[in-house]
Design goal:
The structure holds two protein chains of two kinds. Chain A is mainly alpha-helical. Chain A folds into two domains: 60 residues, Helix Hairpins (Orthogonal Bundle); 217 residues, Four Helix Bundle (Hemerythrin (Met), subunit A). In chain A, 70% of the residues lie in helices and 0% in strands. Chain A contains eight helices and no strands. The longest helix of chain A has 40 residues. Chain A starts with 18 loop residues before the first helix and ends with a helix. Chain B is built from 17 helices and no strands. The two termini of chain B are 37 Å apart. The chains are: A mainly alpha, B mainly alpha. Chains A and B meet through α1, α3 and α7 of A and α2, α5, α6, α7 and α8 of B.
Chain lengths: 294, 527
């Protein structure tokens, strides 16, 4: 890789920038405000919202700088590769974040719930603590129902989750269509493909909200309905948050496509968001299989 | 900011540093950011050290002497968090910032603005964490491992702890992404992977471990947060969860974390020993493969931290065997360092002394680690002072000694001045003697059954505790010498040559001392 870079111009090192310190202050205010609101202090939410606004300003300003530098042609191919590695490793870290929650799901299903139901070498202990508990998955009966209320039912895989799976898979195809259009300088195809992807993304989020409504109101399934509700809402909620972020990122890319920022040779921002979108898609397949289906 | 003075007389380059505080707040320069990381780590080292002094003062005699037990528990918890996330990790990241671009012949880090953000998140994270000392209910006291359900009893400090850990995690992951992108993409022409200095290699692997393990910690503490405030039952058996699950997830992060704190140390020692033995490193390739093997193994050994928790027998055996396997690549490393010195023409300047101290004392920590890795005997040692002795040998005489060795080794390159060799040697000898007085008796205390994290103890443990405390105070005081050497060197002293050390090899020594603000704007050719 190094040998191909010998003839390129000097690496672009940006001048000093205000945005990193603004971002650090924004993160601090968000965390400080959130911590205070969890402690029931009156100003917590206000501080947190100020922090979030500072973070939004930082993201806006920082990306504006990067975009104008890119449009001004300051980035060599080597800078492009740095961005690529940055995005790849960022996605790897996100995969591991999800892995922690999937790990919790697998542990609960393979170990803790069966053990509480009397399986394994510690099985006889069940007689002494919660003898009435019968281990099943989904967990509609709790080991100790005195403090927690179990759910009355769970969301089946073949309704909204299946529709959502098809939506995300289709959106993966439309974003690829947009990419091909971009490479072939087909502006209308690029914009149409991206607009469809954005629409599918937000429809997914909307359906997910509908599904949460069903779960909570019809089945009384909440984060507090034992380990099933906890893993269900943690995994789908964290994923839904990522889809929302991805859809917002795609919206920005759509706007930039309309403004004509991308060329067949130079469009890494598009690719980064497309990678992210595919990552979110693949995580959903894991969710569909292990949370809803099996 | 003691290095500011060193850089101030340095505006002959046309893109010199900005003036005033803005230079440090807005910088995109890897050397500025590296310096800030190092200074931050040094400050945290003394804050964490002060907490250790409270612990040793309380344990000087049996009975409750100085502080109440809750505060004592806060001190052990905060000492660990500050030293791990505030001192050792930032020091290694700072060294990577300073040295990796220079060692690979790059103009700067791959993502310079992101680099500044990674740094500035840290002071704010520690503002959040250290502020808990003044909150109602005091600082977190459930241990740095944050085991549920104990940690869920933390008072107002709890969300501060969780969110501070999140912020440190963001900083570490962004820093690691930057370092790995730099090494993959910014190497000078001809700098192939197998020509990389070993410090750079160890940082590739450390960055990989950071990127893959820190998010797991983030997931674990997020589940703690929802268990406490949003009614989930991840770690609550009443709802089908399991407190032991937290330990599994935590140590899946925690064991790679242990190697995050030692692999860069291996890289530093592998740079220093060849310089002062005036021989190339013995077995360079085997060092690379050994480092990678250790990193791989670090992901399949985690439950050796929880042998006594009641795992199935198959788990106990699996984690014992994988753990003991780590001795093989580690043994390769120690062998290679010794073989590098074999028939070398050795001199013993301060960096070499610390590196040798590292090899001997880290190996002691490695041996006690092997003892702890054997399941049936761990049943005896678990949660005793033997464990405390073990991880302080690997972290203090391992990681911290290597950071000190690195500081002495590269300080002339950073400041342009030689440090005071007489003071440096004094610092080494006082440290190496007192650190053994401090930690060696703790092996005996642990074998005799003294539990860790308890402010009081049975009277038969008194003598060894007194010895350990005296060693602790003396070790703490010795570190003031280190501070004196660094400040003195930053402010002036004998002019350092470009090569600094007679036997030094590598691109960093081809630059003037101090290294110019922008080092390799045009890449050097590496043959």
């Amino acid at each position: 890789m190094a040998s191909s870079n010998t003839q390129t111009p000097a690496y672009y090192v940006p001048d000093s920038s205000i945005w990193p310190i603004v971002g650090a202050v924004g993160l601090f205010l968000t965390a400080f405000g959130f911590a205070n609101s969890l402690n029931d202090h009156a100003n917590g939410m206000t501080i947190m919202n100020v922090g979030l606004i500072v973070l939004l300003v930082m993201i806006w300003g920082w990306f504006s700088d990067v975009i104008s530098e890119s449009v001004a042609g300051k980035y060599s191919p080597q800078v492009d590769v740095s961005f690529r590695w940055g995005m790849i490793w960022f996605i790897v870290s996100e995969v591991m974040f999800f892995a922690a929650f999937f790990g919790a799901l697998f542990y609960a299903r393979q170990f803790s719930v069966p053990w509480l139901g009397g399986d394994g070498s510690k099985g006889p202990v069940q007689e002494l603590i919660w003898p009435a508990f019968d281990a099943t998955w989904p967990l509609l009966q709790l080991p100790d129902p005195t403090h927690l209320a179990p759910a009355a039912g769970v969301i089946g895989p073949w309704g909204l989750p299946l529709i959502n799976t098809l939506i995300l898979l289709t959106s993966g195809a439309t974003v690829t269509w947009a990419h091909h259009a971009l490479l072939h300088e087909d502006r209308r195809g690029l914009i149409a493909g991206l607009a469809l992807t954005v629409a599918l993304g937000f429809i997914f989020v909307y359906l997910q909200i509908l599904e949460y409504g069903h779960a909570m109101h019809e089945y009384h399934l909440t984060m507090a309905s034992g380990i099933y509700g906890a893993t269900f809402f943690m995994l789908t909620g964290f994923h839904g948050f990522h889809v929302t972020l991805g859809a917002i990122m795609l919206t920005v890319i759509l706007a930039r496509a309309i403004w004509g920022h991308f060329t067949p040779q130079n469009h890494f921002a598009f690719e980064a968001v497309a990678w992210y979108w595919h990552f979110v898609d693949v995580v959903w397949l894991g969710l569909f299989i292990f949370v809803y289906w099996l | 900011m003691s290095h500011a003075a060193a850089h101030a007389d340095h505006h002959d380059h046309h893109h010199g540093p900005a003036k005033g505080i803005g230079r440090w707040l807005y910088t995109t320069n890897h050397k500025d950011i590296g310096t800030m990381y190092m200074v931050f780590a040094l400050i945290m080292f003394f804050i964490g050290g002060a907490m250790a002094m409270v612990i040793r003062a309380e344990l000087f005699q049996p009975g409750l002497q100085l502080v109440d037990p809750q505060f004592f528990n806060s001190m052990t918890t905060m000492h660990a968090l500050v030293m791990i996330f505030g001192a050792v990790m930032p020091a290694f990241v700072g060294l990577a910032n300073w040295m990796v671009p220079v060692m690979i012949g790059a103009p700067d880090m791959a993502l310079p603005r992101l680099n500044n953000w990674s740094f500035w998140i840290m002071p704010f994270a520690f503002l959040l964490l250290l502020s808990t000392l003044f909150l109602p209910g005091g600082a977190p006291a459930g241990g740095w491992t944050m085991y549920a359900p104990l940690v869920l009893q933390t008072g107002e400090a709890f969300p501060f702890l969780i969110l501070a850990v999140h912020m440190m995690g963001i900083s570490s992951v962004l820093g690691a992404i930057n370092i790995i992108a730099t090494i993959f993409n910014m190497r000078a022409p001809g700098m192939t992977y197998m020509k990389l200095p070993l410090f750079v290699w160890t940082w590739i692997i450390t960055a990989f471990l950071l990127i893959t393990s820190i998010p797991v910690l983030a997931g674990a503490v997020t589940m703690l947060l929802t268990d406490k405030y949003f009614g989930t039952s991840f770690f609550n058996a009443a709802g089908g969860g399991d407190p032991v699950m937290f330990q599994h997830i935590f140590w899946f992060f925690g064991h790679p974390e242990v190697y995050i704190m030692i692999l860069p140390a291996f890289g530093i020692v592998s740079a220093i020993i060849p310089t002062f033995a005036r021989k190339p490193l013995f077995g360079y390739e085997s060092m690379v493969y050994a480092t990678a093997s250790i990193a791989f193994l670090s992901f399949i050994v985690w439950a050796h931290h929880m042998f006594t928790v009641g795992m199935p027998l198959a788990g106990e055996l699996f984690f014992m065997y994988t753990t003991v396997l780590i001795a093989v690549p580690t043994g390769v490393k120690v062998f290679n360092w010794v073989a590098t010195m074999w028939r070398g023409s050795m001199t013993f300047e301060t960096p070499m002394l610390f590196a040798l101290g590292f090899v001997v004392l880290f190996t002691i920590g490695g041996f006690s680690g092997l003892m702890l890795g054997v399941t049936p005997v761990d049943f005896q040692y678990h949660d005793t002072y033997f464990v405390v002795a073990h991880f302080h040998y690997v972290l203090v005489t391992g990681a911290v000694f290597s950071i000190m060795a690195a500081t002495y080794y590269w300080l002339p390159k950073w400041t342009g001045h030689m440090y005071d060799e007489r003071l440096g040697k004094l610092h080494f000898w006082s440290s190496v003697i007192t650190v053994n007085i401090l930690f060696f008796p703790q092996h005996f205390l642990g074998l005799a059954g003294m539990p860790r994290r308890i402010p009081d103890y049975a009277v038969q443990f008194t003598d060894f505790n007194m010895i350990s405390s005296i060693g602790g105070f003396a070790f703490g005081l010795s570190q003031l010498l280190f501070l004196a050497v660094v400040i003195k060197c930053a402010r002036g002293g004998e002019k350092a040559t470009d090569r600094v050390w007679e036997g030094a090899e590598g691109l960093e020594w081809t630059l003037p001392s101090p290294a110019p603000y922008h080092s390799f704007t045009t890449p050097p050719i590496v043959r």
